[in-house]
Structures are given as structure tokens and as C-alpha cells.
Amino acid sequence: MSEERKVGENFDEKTAQDIFDRLKNVEGKTMPKTEGKFKKISDLMNEAKYLEDKGNLDEASELYKQVIFVLPDSQKAYEALAGIYQKQNDVDGEKEILKKAIANCKNNDGFKKRLDEIN
Description:
Mean pLDDT: 80
Largest sheet: none
CATH superfamily of the domain at 38-118: Tetratricopeptide repeat domain
Shape: globular
Structural class: mainly alpha
CATH architecture of the domain at 38-118: Alpha Horseshoe
Helix content: 55-70%
Distance between the termini: 43 Å
């Protein structure tokens, strides 16, 4: 049997919080902060697209991140967020979101190709 684990000795606080956040996401118990304003994910996506079209890229990216938090396999949200990073010339941000998209989306060939083009 493996070593006995003791609370507080196996993970630092940040790692523990990251694990807790992932578990909440997997179990679907946490909703976006704006849950009162947006009743459906489609409403959240529409608002994000509207903000993006108006040039409010930072606000739009936050909404796309909320969609991804609730639906971690949302290809449209990943595509939009990667596009925002591209518009902002944030190559590192674009690479990071593409890696997450590859890990979470079933049909990820487009994301792989795009990441290869950046590298």
C-alpha cells in the first residue's frame, strides 16, 4: 500500500485550490458569476460575441472563459477566445487556450493545426 497521506503535506494551497476548482467544474456544481443575468449558455455566448464585435475584447474573453468553465468541450468558445488572443497579439495566451482546446475537445484537428502554425 502507498504512503499514508497527511492533510496539508501533499499539496500546497494553490495546487489544492486548482484541484478543488476542477472537481467543482467536473461535477457541474459551480455556475458562472453572471448566472442571474444569463440563463442559458447560448445567452452568454451571444453576449460575448456582441462585446467582441463592439471591440470590448477583455469583457468578451471573460464571458468565453465562463462558457468554457461550464462547458469545457465548447469548441465555439475556444475558437472565439483564441481569436481574441490573436487580435490582441497575445501569442502565449493563444497557445495556452489552443492546448486546452486540444485536451478537451473531441474534434480537435483544427486546434492542432492552428497550434502547429503558431509554433
